[in-house]
Design a protein that fits this description.
With about 140 residues, the chain is α+β, with helices and mostly antiparallel strands.
Length: about 140
């Protein structure tokens, strides 16, 4: 059964992407830090990160909201981030959950199937899968 265009559009646009939090030990210049991050992803990975609106909190915590799935995927991958940003050490906090656009629902999974076993089976074919759980 094919997924309708309306369902696809809803899944892609309905849910906002949660922010990534970048914490610094000193006050930062928001524009310089953002420029440095965007340049890093552009130069190293040839990816244009699209921000929906960064926010600076207490001059040390940068909340970065991304606009699309590609930007979210790049930001989510810890290995793609630089060691320092504009020569500053930082801590990156990923969102605690993935948005719905990165979820898949499997139907007709037997109730007796152990969820950890299911996750391992899925990871055999799709190693990037992070988690699995049952819907009530």
């Amino acid at each position: 059964e094919e997924i309708s265009q309306e369902a696809r559009r809803f899944a892609v646009t309905r849910y906002p992407f949660p922010p990534f939090v970048i914490k610094f030990k000193q006050d930062i210049d928001e524009k310089d830090v953002i420029k440095n991050i965007l340049n890093h992803f552009s130069a190293i990975y040839k990816v244009k990160i699209v921000l929906a609106g960064p926010r600076l909190k207490n001059k040390r915590e940068l909340l970065m909201f991304v606009e699309n799935r590609e930007s979210f995927s790049c930001f989510f991958d810890d290995d793609k981030w630089p060691k320092t940003i504009d020569s500053l050490e930082y801590e990156k906090i990923r969102p605690s959950h993935l948005p719905a656009q990165f979820s898949i629902i499997l139907r007709n999974v037997p109730i007796e199937k152990n969820i950890d076993s299911l996750l391992n089976d899925i990871k055999n074919d799709y190693p990037n899968v992070i988690n699995a759980f049952r819907l009530s």
